[in-house]
Amino acid sequence: MSAIREKQQRARRGAARTALSTASALLAVSVAWSSCAGAQPLPVPSAGLPGYVKGAQEVPDPGLDYKVLFNLSSAGPVDKVHPMFLRVGRYLNALAEYGVPSNRRHLTIVVYGPATEFVLNDAAFAARNHGKHNPNAAMINSLRQAGVITRICSQAMIAQHVQPGDLLPTVELDYWALSTRVNLEQRGYVVEEELAPGK
Fold this sequence. Notes:
By secondary structure, the protein is an alpha/beta fold. The protein folds into two domains: 37 residues; 142 residues, Hypothetical Protein Ychn, Chain: A (3-Layer(aba) Sandwich). It has six helices and five strands. A five-stranded parallel sheet has the order 4-3-2-1-5, sandwiched between helices. The chain is globular. It starts with a helix and ends in a 7-residue tail after the last strand.
């Protein structure tokens, strides 16, 4: 009886050692993968990350250059950040999370139409919105610090009666949103259209 118990105890100790070795090996692989993947701090933490579903096939590739032009022309709430700015921030964060270096992240937002007011400085925004501050200003500034360029269509400015001095200081002025789009497409940018609300 004691020989059987001793054999069982040896088997349990062996199984425990194997489990510990396997866990250690998995941890080592995980740490090695993380360091190889080069995951970086989120450039715009307040924007968060997109959701994750296990088994997703296409993910950001650190070896590719990401050139994306985001169109922003829709109206939105005047008391919170426009969803497109948050979307750009999440996309930028996802690139960093998967190890895409900053010199391979080329993101531009072109603003026109009813969205023009979202790139106004606080004084100009308040004059059009019952004294409210521009809730997009901090996000646009964070995006710029992370390398994202926000551009405004001067044709939209004319239509919306906006002067260059009304713009946030980090916003760049372009001749025409159409020209910006065509030029950047010719330089290899992918144009990302706005999603319908709730997408």
